[in-house]
Amino acid sequence: MEEKVATSSGCDYEVFLSFRGPDTRAGFTDFLYTSLKGAGIRTFKDDEDLRKGVEFAPELLRAIKQSKIFIPIFSKDYASSIWCLKEVVQMVECKKNGGKKIMPIFYDVAPSEVRYQIGNYEKSFLLHERKESYDQKTIGEWKDALRAVGEINGWELPRGPTRREGEFARKLTRKVFNELKQAYLVVSDCLVSVDNHVDAIMEKISAQTSETRIIGIHGMGGIGKTTIAKIIYNRLSNNFEDCCFLSNIREMSERKGIECLQNQLISDILKDKCIDIRNIDDGIKTIKDRLSNKRVLLLLDDVHEKNHIDALVGGRDWFGRGSKLLITTRNKEVLDVFEVDNHYELTGMDRSQSLQLFSKHAFRRDSPLDEYIDQSNRVIDIAKGLPLALEVIGSLLSRTEKRKWNDILEKLENVPHTEVQRKLKISYDALEVRHKHIFLDIACLFIGCDKDVMVHFWEKSKFFPKEALIVLQNMSLIKIEENNSVWMHDQLRDLGREIVRQESNTKIQEQSRVWDPKEGLVLLRKHKGEKKVEALRLKLDNHQRYCFSYEGFENLSHLKFLEVDGSIENFCVEERLLWPELPSIFFPTNENSYLLPQLRWLSWHDISPFNIANFSMEDVVIFNLSGSKITDDWKGWSHMKVMMNLKVLDMSNCSLLERLPDSIGSLESLIELDISKTSIKELPDSIGNLKKLKVVKMRESRLSKIPDVLWSMGNLEHIMASSGVYGFRERHFHVQIGNGICGSQSLRILILESADIYPLPRLPESLINLQMSILHMGTFPDLSNLTNLEKMDLEFGWPHHDVISNGLGEHPMPRWLGNLSKLEFLALCSHHGTTSPTNLALPPQLKSLRLECPNLRHLPRLPSSLSYLKLDGCKSLCSMEDLSNLKKLSSLRILSAAIAEIQGLGCLENLRDLYLHSLRQVKILPDLSNLNKLTSLRVEYCDKLVEIQGQLPRFLDFFHVDDCGSLQKLPDLSSLMGKQALFLYNCKKINVEAILDVARLNPRHFKFVDFEQLQILPDLSNSNELIRLQVQQCDNLVEIQGELPQSLEVLEIDSCKSLWKLPNLSSLTGLREVSIGYCDNLVEIPGELPQSLKKLRIFYCGSLQKLPCLSSLIRLRAVRIQNCDNLVEIQGELPQFLEVLEIHSCKSLQKLPNLSSSMGLREVRICFCNDLVEIQGELPQSLEKLVISSCVSLRKLPYLSSLIGLQEVCVLNCGNLVEILSELPQSLEKLEIYSCRSLQKLPNLLSSMGLQEVHIRYCNDLVEIPSELPQSLEKLVISSCESLQKLPNLSSLIRLREFSIHNCDQLVEIPGELPQSLEVLDIYECQFLQELPNLSSLKGLQKVKIIRCRKLNVKAISSLCLEMSVKSVEVDDEYDSEADVEVDDEYDSKEDE
After folding, report:
1. Which CATH class name applies to 187-345?
2. Where in the chain are all domains bearing CATH 3.40.50.300?
3. Marked catalytic residue, from 3, 55, 87, 795
């Protein structure tokens, strides 16, 4: 043997080579062994001395079992060796039991020879059988092993002059190294190291209580905050339907704006990808309005500023009760300002933890090799417990010869431990020059970008990007995520950016990459002349305006990457950079285009008016127009023909784009095309000319069909198409997949969602991911050839009624499903599936199974590999095989099935989550006490369930029983140690004593609903762990006796109509929230409220006449009083730090307390208080939003001009309000006045320099609008102002985008010109309006709607709009009843709000 087998603990060998010596030992095997050994990979190459005798030598058997990767080299006479065959059997056994990997090489043989034992392999087995040295069982085991390995995708090395064995050995070495490295990039490797942190944070978050908890995790960059938070998130996620992880908030908010994160949050929780958040305020309103009833799990990663939290989780009431929020940040001040419930400072690892983590990266094992102990301890001293440093330094040393370790460590020891970036730079210094360049590009520009797109950018630069990315990944400088995006740690990102700054001596004009949009503007504004910048990112808004000039672009001659974000309204441009007003045949060619001669990546999100013919576009490979306002007649299409190197074209979110030009087919180098969220209805046939196209994305599109030519394109790898939701209806598009798709052997991913798909042709075997909905066909399609599938999700359309009634809708599930040997995720929503107990065969390695099959009657034995099983809507399912073999199952959910029992349920030892819903035949649930990992049990709508036997698992945290009307007895709960949350709903046969027994269990959260038999709730003062108590719909509950426990934080009493008395709450020093509603007989809240109270809500308590005094409650932040008809007065002053006051439908309330003392008040809403005459005193300067609605006796508002933070004023249905006194404040952004019919005059609006929206509706006595409006105005809506005769001149409103005027009968003219910025003009039923301003100069006009304006020449207006190519034109001078309804509905909806 060439190396002695080591005897230290753990896996000393990583790779085992199996080969027949005479065939390859001196040639290819020696090449491969030398290459692996040179890369530092511990490789076993056996010696013939170990193969003497009949049995395995102990060393040989140990080497196989220790190795992680097996490489059998199948040569022609490999099967003639008994030892080789024995080795293969051992490999297959180890792979099956230990998760090892086999990477076969077929050297001068075809895989089929090995798989089927033909050719030389057949001859070898005939010889073995003739010798009769081994019985048929042993020979059968050899054949089975060869068959198993022969089916694995490996590498073929046929004989020939192009074989190049040395080069192949080097490539395979890189592959092996990558496989070994990836094995340690999993969270579970660090679980032992972080359990102390996780347990401490889990205790703070009170995981299973129904209170909302916000926990902050802070510490230095690279300390492991995100890792810890992800582990906690994963532990909690099974208990939440609605989860969201917002990663890299600091980076994402800088690059894409906080609106992007708001959009992701809303989309993830509502499962609606069509949400479109236009600004931060819009996002805040949407989150508060639509997520306030959602119990969410939310992880905010890397929050850097207070405004991040303000925009995403401004208050606890933004989310439903029981939500859990985790926030990671480097800036502890963010947590202090937000007042999180608890914060946790993450510290470094101790010495033993550090040694383990370092060893995993340096040696790929849990402890260092014996000869490296001293150097490993030196590393631990250097890293000082910082996980990132341990990981990066370990990866660096893993690729370094031992003799160089001391030199590297000596260099590391001279760097102070506080300067983490200098430590990390050691890895940077070890890179080649080309790898350094790519590292810096990623750090400055490309974090989160798709890896393949980045490769296109670098391809012609001779940086060999594919190899570089592998090196960077193996060095732990980057990671490639599952979605193919590139991730880099913050510390490494900051290191790269600091290197770029230092290279330029911190002079921005010398800097090669400018990633900060603000610095980009500084560079362009303040530094004239030639610039060295190669990559530039800009973002312009109304605060950051810039005028692009020809000379400015001339000075950017080195620029390769340009990203410009922001609306075109927010910056200006020199005239000669715009498109000329000439027909396309006169457009200049690119011959004189000298601007940006090295440009390769252009991302400009509103480029439509720019003349790209000025740019040198020949070398551009990525062109990102996403979110642009380009249309099908954009003048830039004709110039794109020069972009012969273009590989990625992104037009997603170009909502005005209705078709692609035929010239798109001239982009012969195009690889990726994204037209998601456009208005394109059909693709041109010329797309078939794009022979290199690999990826087509058409998500949420308006496509009516997919062209046949797409299915037969030879290089296509990825098709993703789905239909969008328009209005409130989901629209499907028709898909007829052409037969040519079978020949598309490059296609790997096919996703068609919300599509009408008709009979499928044969699909290509290359597919690994197939997702389709909705399939319209009478039988299950034959997909048996798709043996490479890893994920399949199919949804079938429901058959017609006559098909079902004739029994024609029943077809067996195909047995070939069991032959898809690589399938791990299977989801079927199908009417197929019938009666045979064995008709559903499933692949043995399946991990996740989701079935929605209403005709499925029997579920056969399932593969033991399953970890997730969901049966939803399988209404005919009346029997299931025993589940006891599912030892890995962690989540089981069965909804709406006809089964009467679930066999083997008590044997699912790894089950964590059990959810049973609408199992109306189940009478008894078995004893679950042995399910020691079960943390959540939900049983709902099981009408016949009589009993849950035995005891519940000791550590169950969440127990929920709902609408089980026959349930007479609860299981024994006495052994519960978790008992975090116990919920009982509408189980009317459970006796009162059982309910009281649950209360006495001392849970942390107790909720019971709809128990008519309960009249008195006993003294709970001894329930000293009870944090949240909810009592709902107990109509006969008269009294809550005694005192409530001191531990109580949240009290909610709802719909207890007989309840007349509450216990005294003054002693509950931890009480934070009180909510009392629909308690008609409740006359008073006795005593004082506790000082700890933060939120008080009282609603529909019709007998309540007064509230306790609130002035001393210094922690009170929100007061909401609704529909308390007899409430006359709110006593005393409001507390100083109150933030939200809402009083709604308190009809007897005549007077509000003085609000001026509430210095933190941000929002006031007063609605439907009919007797309220005035709002006394001054409003506090902290006020941001004021809403007054339907206060019919109110005659005047307080002065608003001094409220320097006021952003929104909304006054609705105040019929006696005559005037709004004084000016409005400068800070105001939105003014809405609805149905104030006595209002005659508006205040001066000119002083409100930030005003963006004005809405005036149904103000009958209003005669005029102020003559001057602020230039910041973007939207002006005037409706049903019957006396209005005059409008101001709007020509100076340079940002006005939308102007709507409805039902203004006295209006005769619109004076002056309309502003150039106008996009929407909407005029409805202005009977006497005689003339419009000239529209021909409005280049950005997109929508014109003129209805029932009888004196206007609508035909001339319509013709002019068509000449101007206005996208949406609707003109009509006749009566339009539907339009009437539209206006009325809009007003009604506002009133309802």
Report:
1. alpha beta
2. 187-345
3. 87
